[in-house]
Amino acid sequence: MNSAAGGEPIIDIVGVNKWFGDFHVLKDINLQVARGEKLVICGPSGSGKSTLIRCINRLEIHQKGRITVDGIELSNDVKRIDQVRREVGMLFQNFNLFPHMTVLENLTLSPVWIRKMPLHAARKLAFQYLERVKIPELADKYPGQCSGGQQQRVAIARCLCMNPKVMLFDEPTSALDPEMIKEVLDVMVDLANSGMTMLCVTHEMGFARTVADRVVFMDAGEIVEENDPETFFNHPRFDRTQLFLSQIISH
Amino acid sequence: MAEEWKAKPALPAPILETGIGGWLARNLFSSPGNSCLTLLGLALLYWSVPPVLHWAVFAANWLGDTRSACDAGLPGVKSGACWVFIKVRLGVFIYGFYPEAERWRVDFTFLLLAANLFPLLAPLLFRSLGRQLLLALVTVFAVLFLYGAVPAGVALVLLFLPVLLVWLSQRVAEFAGGGTFLLPALASCFLGALAAGLFLKLFFAGEAMVPISLFVALLLALLLFTRRLGVTAWRWFLLATLYPLIAWLALLGGAFSLPLVETHFWGGLSLTLVVAGCGMLTALPIGVLLALGRRSQLPVINTLCVSFIEFVRGVPLVSVLFMASVMFPLLLPENVNFDKLLRALVGIAFFYAAYMAEVIRGGLQAIPRGQYEAAEALGWTYWKMMGLIILPQALRLVIPGLANNFLSLLKDTTLVAVIGLLDLLGIAKAAMADVQWLGFTREAYLFAGLVFWVFCFAISRYSVYLEKKYHTSYQ
After folding, report:
1. Helical H segments across B89-230, by residue range
2. What is the mean pLDDT of chain B?
């Protein structure tokens, strides 16, 4: 099952179940992600894919099963949760930049206050990552003055400033115009090439084809199938997967 | 060959479109009904303004020091306002019954407050450290010339300490590197407090030993455990800790060879400002805590905050003040006695905290869920997240509501009259009852009203300034 590089998986999800009230969102999920692996999770809306990656940094709490991130098992222990969150960066559909701070402040705030980094070092780091996402000129702008694509790239830089081992992407391009989707995907491809471990919930099948090591298809809270992109797109095992792919590719 | 086309020359606009005529036609006489209203308004102004101006300015008595100056008007001529009355009693209006020889202490306290608060309230004006230091230096020299060396020393400490502390905290951070030294740090807090206490014990017979030692301990703790506070943060910290200590020692006295002036001598504008200032400084933080508590998911804290807020919002301020002054001492043991003013301050602070809590909760509810999630995903813990990410946004949203609360707090200080403290309005009323100066009710009320208006208007304009400042930086 664990097709990519060997060794301990960095994320180990075993028998995870989750309910929202009476509604069974995640049903017996088992998933291992190796260091440096790129995973794309797709599926119809309401299939539980966002909930699954939100469980990994405990924005959602699972009721049954075990999630281990880089050797730390998630529990109600606040210290462990913070430890995991510092190693796991997350991108959101709505960017969620802090609107009352400039782009530079958005980037330096967490390293300074959470990682206890000196301010000048944090600024240097911030500019380094702004260069990497190709928007160093926006450092003194406020998020409200940037376009959606620029905001999402700032959000990526903000994550990178915390030097995470894993990055989670929760539909990072769903709220963007087509032109902006490309600039964000370019940054994500660049990130993938640098060897970052990535879990992406996305409908960008082109991205999945070129970048992913493995594609996971979810429906109704279950992992229906997972495979390398070549096999997944050309020879899906289940009719449900086929239906989903035909719908998503037809337009 | 085509015919030559000539543009028509531009003609001047009709007289009723531009200039004063146009403005009048558009705004005052745009229809017969509006013209009638304009004329009616002019008539009203004509009937009301000149008599008021006549009374308050032209026919008013400004000169002299005794009642006879106001009574000397010609018989039959309607005489104007007697501002001599206000002028003679100005000291009482400002200081209440504070002994005349000690009034400089009140001036000193408020001067110090102004010098500390100004860079905080107008950060754009005092962006450079040089300007801040210049203001501090000017203040220290002013205090030195006006009140002597010891007050100047106090001002020097209060105003320059933030800069020194920033420098010290950088040295501490360099020395400590990334490590934590819990035990040595705690020990040095304790030792620092002990040294301060011992110093006071030996040289000043132990005066104000406990609060000063506590302050030193708190200062050292903050210095050693938080290594990244800026000048502004330190200034706020000193305003909330050291300044009240200085103000309390300076105003009350009874220590460091200052004669004791008990709080029932306090009064007038200075009392109004003390009550309002303390109320604002304490009600806002308590309000923030109550608002956070009310949104907390911990059932005990939540229930406590909700019941406190709902209880306080359900009773009038007057009854809270009565409770604080009459009922509260009954609940205490015989020999324990809190000052009446202190009890009133606590009552007002908690009363307004409950109102502010609800305003702030409104702001918290307007912050999208995503902001919390983004902060949590980056590894932020609750208090840091609230302090640096959520509350700064929430408080900016509720500036108009908070300004409302601050204004009504300032005006409600007049209610301390019901427990026998004479604020500006109380002093004005007391002045009216003076047998030598009977019959000047209008002057007294007008003066008190004008002073309140000036302060309230200042708060209101400041809130508009804040709103604009934060709005422009948002988008």
Report:
1. 90-95, 103-121, 129-147, 149-176, 182-204, 209-225
2. 83
- Do B201 and B53 belong together in one domain? no
pLDDT at A2 over 50: no
Q: CA A187, CA A181: separation in Å to the nearest integer? A: 10
pTM of the predicted model as reported, rounded to 2 decimal places: 0.84
Distance CA B266, CA B262 (A): 7
C-alpha dihedral, A126 to A128 to A131 to A132, nearest 10°: -100
Quick check: B123 and B232 in contact, CB under 8 A?
yes
Measured CA to CA, the distance from residue A60 to residue B46 in angstroms comes to 70
Whether the CB-CB separation of B431 and B448 falls below 8 Å is answered with no
B322-354 residue pLDDT tens: 888 877 777 777 666 677 888 888 889 999 999
Residue matched to tokens 């794309």: A40
Largest Cα separation within chain A, whole Å, is: 56
For strands A214-219 and A222-227, give the pairing.
antiparallel
In a domain, B17, yes or no: no
In a domain, B38, yes or no: no
On the 0-12 / 13-18 / 19+ scale of CB atoms within 10 A, A204 is: buried
DSSP A149-209: HHHHHHHHHHHHHT--SEEEEESTTTTS-HHHHHHHHHHHHHHHHTT-EEEEE---HHHHH
pLDDT digits (tens, 9 = 90+) for A102-146: 999 999 999 988 888 888 899 999 999 999 988 999 999 999 889
The gap from C-alpha A247 to its chain's centroid, in whole angstroms, comes to: 24
Averaged pLDDT, B19-25: 81
Q: What is the CATH number of the domain that holds B296?
A: 1.10.3720.10
3-state secondary structure of B369: helix
A85 has a chain B CB within 8 A of its CB: yes
CB contact under 8 A, B473 and A100: yes
> Considering only alpha carbons, which residue of chain A is nearest residue B389?
A98
ipTM for this prediction:
0.91
B363 pLDDT band (50/70/90 cuts)? very high
Q: Taking CB atoms and an 8 Å limit, are A85 and B370 in contact across chains?
A: no
Same domain, yes or no: B241 and B275: no
Residues 228-267 on B with a CB inside 8 Å of A are: 228
